[in-house]
Structure formats: structure tokens, C-alpha cells
Amino acid sequence: MSPMGPMRRMRPMREGTQTMQAASDTVQGADLLPVRMLNEYAYCPRLFHLMHAEGRWEDNVYTEQGRQVHRRVDAIDHVLPDALPGKHETHETHGTHDVGVPGDEPPEITRSVPLSSARLGLTAKLDLVSSAESEAVPVERKRGKVPDNPERSWEPERVQLMAQGLLLREHGYRCDHGILYFAGSRTRVDVPFTAELEARTLALIEQTRLAALASQLPPPLDDSPKCNGCSLSGICLPDETSALRAVPPDPAAPEVRRLYPVRDDALPFYVQEQGAVIGKTSNSLVVRKDGAELASVPLKDISQLVLCGNILVTAQAIHLLCEAGIPVVHLSSGHWFYGMTSGFAVRNGFNRAAQYEAARDPQRALALAREIVRAKGANQRTMLRRNAQPRPEDALVDMADWCGRAEKAEELPALLGLEGALAAAYFRHFGTMIRAPAFDGSNLFEGRNRRPPLDPVNALLSFGYALLAKECTVALHAEGLDPWWGLYHQARHGRPGLALDLMEEFRPLVVDSAVLSALNTGMVAPRNFECSAAGCLLQPAGRKAFIQAYEARLDQLVTHPLFDYRASWRSIIRMQARLLGRWFRGDVPAYTGFTTR
């Protein structure tokens, strides 16, 4: 449990993007600071930056529970009655007893109260206010249980409540304490508004306002229990960042925690039925053809909509997907990756500005290119070492030497030569990894070729690389990076250079492995290909079978070589895209390609 419990109430990005952005725009305009942002900054400055400077958000079970707790008070705004002048006794509180205010009349309870103050520069929607005559008590609902500490609350909660008290004072009320109601333990906790708490709150208001204008990502919390249950921990990567910053590695450093789910619940939704129409019904996508419904999938289960060929999507469905931040990926029936349709994802230019700056620096571009070639070559070598029969010892020795030379290359042309030598050795022995009895006697593989592929293996490889390119493009786009502006793959019209940079290390481990699995297990058969002297075409049934093999590979777990925890290949690709962006920004000192032993 984190020092404040897991992440508190927030609206999810899918439902509250406009609200969150409006709040950020308000701060950018040096206008009114939402009090909930004050809470978030006090909790973790890095969390605050990711949410309000970069527009990042992920939901988890705790944020969903928090939203349920606030559903009643957030439903309708109410107007707080005016404070009445008069003499009043000093209000006394009694621990966790009922909220009370002085006077003979019972207090008036007002829910979901919007208040603002130009002098304080604050705005807020108070969950509940108990008021009578000239005194008011703010009540803030929290999802979790009462903390086991002397104050029976955490500082961000007290600061948030104090800020609400300051707003009530601005509107003429006397307000010397507030109440935190913890839904998890059904307990009220009194929070006195001391001079120390007021001073701390006023200081945090100024710090928060400055932080909203900052472009530099704050450092992560150091092995903090706050990170457990935080919905942004998979974006923040606090332990991973700290581990990568430790150069040389500290053997006494705490174990790196995997703070994000091992797998995603939402997965790509592939549509291959030519002539199909995709529409929407409520929060689901519906696939129809000739008036018949072929499939219906809830939006919450979809991470990408992948169109293979001649598929129509209605404007209403596109609007729904854009609002939800779900990209539409366009593939041709011949396996070309055409592009992507998406809404506004990350609403900041920090990552892209840093990316373009790195691309203009020859030394940084060379450093990334070295790592790309080294990691790709090492993974190609691993594939041969594990699977080739007989084992090509001479090739393995040469490939190890070329990988070592790639780490020290002084210019990009030398790296291109080393990458070519590694690829030539790898594909020269690629056929020794294939054991597909159904293809005996057929022209299965005679070296790497494409545009068009001339044999079944190359047809599968080309399709798989197109799928991997779209996966990397989606991951980079989610980080606010420009998939088209690469550092190793130099900018060229129509080529997603950075996506190609990212995918190189994953070609052998994801696509080549899926191709071998599909062939060696009989998932694809000779009947799934149409081959002639002009080329080899993968048929629809073969595409469907290979997509299953490819997605199964992405869903498999792998142990991270640096952090020593297990996650799915899809999660690893997304993490590498995130770490690449962090390297551009200077948050980590170097980018390290993913390799397996």
C-alpha cells in the first residue's frame, strides 16, 4: 500500500481527456489552478508532470473504484448558500464523529460545490460542504481506508482539504477544519487547519503553478511505496529509470519492481473480411457484411483496430475510436503497412522536440545506431544458436565479432556494412531452423527476398515485418514521438524511420520466431500460398493463421535482461519505445537494445 494508498480519484483519459486538457490549459494561461492538481503535485511531482504537462493517463482498478465513490457527488453542481453575518461559538470536533457546525439550526449539506478565487488563483469542486450561517466545513471523500499514521491522513489529502478551506474563507465563511471521509473504512477524520498547514498549502500552490509550465521531467521517486498501485507507474517507470541512471550499476540497489500489468487486457482487433463495414453500437464495434453481423467487440477490449485490405469504417466508429485514443491501422491486402488514423494522443511536443534535436546530433544518432545494430545482430545470433541444426559454429563466431565491432563503429556507413554482414550470415543459415514436413520438396526458402516475396518463408517474413512496423508505430505514437523521423534509418519520404529503428531488435525475436513457429507446427500449410515465378502470395486463411502465431508470440512472457522481471513481448516493445523517448529527453543516460540470452 502506498503512503496515500493506491492512486486516488481521477477521470480516465478516455472519458476525461477534454477536462484534463482544459485544466492544463488553464494553468498554462496563468489563470486558476484546480485544487485536485495541487493534490497530485504534493503526491508526486513526476506524476503531476506526466498528467498535466504531457497529458498522460492510464486507468486501473483503483481509479475505477475512486470514480465510483465520487459518482454521486459529481453528478450535479450545487450552489453554496451565502454566509450570514453573526456571532458564533468556536467549533469543536470530536475525532471521527459526525460533521457539525455551531448554531441552533441543523447544518445545510451541499454536494458538488464549484468554487474559485482569483486572489488565490484556485478553483475546485468540493465533494460536500456542511454549512450553517457563517461557518462551513468541507468534506472530501477518499476511496481507501484510514491511514495508520499519527495524522490518520496523508499530506496531499490535507493540503487539498486546506485549499478547499481557503476557498470557503474567500467566500465569506469561517473555516477552521475539514473532514476526510474514507469510504474503505467508513470513517470520518477531522483535519484542523493549522497555520503550518496553511503555509505549506500556499507554498505548494506556487510550486504547482511553476511545475505546470516546466518541460523537464522530474526525477522518479526512489523505491517509494507510493508507486505501488499508481496507475501511471507503467508510464513513469520509476524503478527502471533509477536502475538505468546508476552507472555503473549499484549491486546494493533495491530490486526493480514490475509496477505495470504483465499483459494488457485490450488487444488488437484484426478485420480481414473484404467488403466488411465496421460501425459502432454504444461502446462496441460491430462488423457487418451484406447486412449480417460478423462480430461485435466491446471498446474496452480493443487496443488497435487493424484493417487488412478493403474494409470500410463509418465516421461514427472513427469518432468513437479517436475519442478513446484507439488507433486505426491500415494494411493492404498485400501486407503493406499504409499508415494509421488516430485522435489526439499525447498533447505535448517535448518528446518530439528532443527527438529532432537528437537526430541533428551526429554523435547521438551514431550512438543509437550502434545499439540498434548490436542488439539486432545479437538476437539473430541467439536465434541461430538456439534453433539451427546443425549449429553453424563459424557463423556464430563471426557474428559475435561483428556485434563487438558494431559497438565501436565510428560512422554510419560502417554500421550499414556490419548489419549487412550479420544479415547475410543469419539468412544463409535460416533454413536450418525450419522443420516443416508439409513443405518437403517445395521451394520453401532460398534466401531473403521481397517486393514481391518469391517463396512462402519470405511471404510470411514480409507480412510479419509489416505487423511489427505497425506495432512499433503505435507504440512510438503513444509516446508523442514522430515515427517517421529516424536516427539510424534516415528520414525518407514514406518511410517510418523511427519505427524501423525500434523494430530492428525485435525482428528476430518476434517475427522470425513467429514464422518458424507457424511453419514448424503446421499452422500454415502449402495450400495457404499461391506461388508462381512472379512471386508468392499468402492467402486469407494463411494470413489469419499467421496473425494467430504472431499475436501468440507477442503474448508470451520474457525475462527482461536488465530488470530481471517477466513481461509480455508487447509490453516490452512499448517499454522500449518509452525508454527511447526518455533517452531523447535525457531522463536516462543511454538507450539499451533488448537482447535475450
Protein topology:
Blueprint: H1 13-28, E1 33-34, H2 35-43, H3 45-53, H4 61-74, E2 108-117, E3 122-132, E4 135-142, H5 155-170, E5 177-182, E6 187-192, H6 195-211, H7 233-236, H8 238-245, E7 267-271, E8 277-281, E9 284-289, E10 292-298, E11 302-308, E12 312-313, H9 315-324, E13 328-331, E14 337-341, H10 350-360, H11 362-387, H12 393-406, H13 412-428, H14 456-478, H15 497-503, H16 507-520, E15 529-532, E16 535-538, H17 540-555, E17 557-559, E18 566-568, H18 569-585
Parallel strand pairs: 1-3, 4-5, 7-11, 8-12, 11-13
Antiparallel strand pairs: 2-3, 3-4, 5-6, 8-9, 9-10, 13-14, 15-16, 17-18
Helix pairs in contact: 2-3, 2-5, 2-6, 5-6, 10-18, 11-12, 11-13, 11-16, 12-13, 14-15, 14-16, 14-18, 16-17
As a whole number of angstroms, the C-alpha radius of gyration is: 28 Å
Number of domains: 3
Oligomeric grouping of the chains: single chain
Q: If classified by CATH, what would the architecture of the largest domain be?
A: Up-down Bundle
Characterise the protein shown here.
- Strand 5 and strand 6 (187-192) form a beta hairpin.
- The protein is built from 18 helices and 18 strands.
- Mean pLDDT is 85; it is low at 1-30 and 87-103.
- The chain has 3 domains: 13-225, Lambda Exonuclease, Chain A, CATH 3.90.320; 267-341, Ribosomal Protein L15, Chain: K, domain 2; 350-585, Four Helix Bundle (Hemerythrin (Met), subunit A), CATH 1.20.120.
- Strands 1, 2, 3, 4, 5 and 6 form a 6-stranded mixed β-sheet that branches. The protein has a 4-stranded mixed β-sheet with strand order 7-11-13-14.
- It has 597 residues and is an alpha/beta fold.
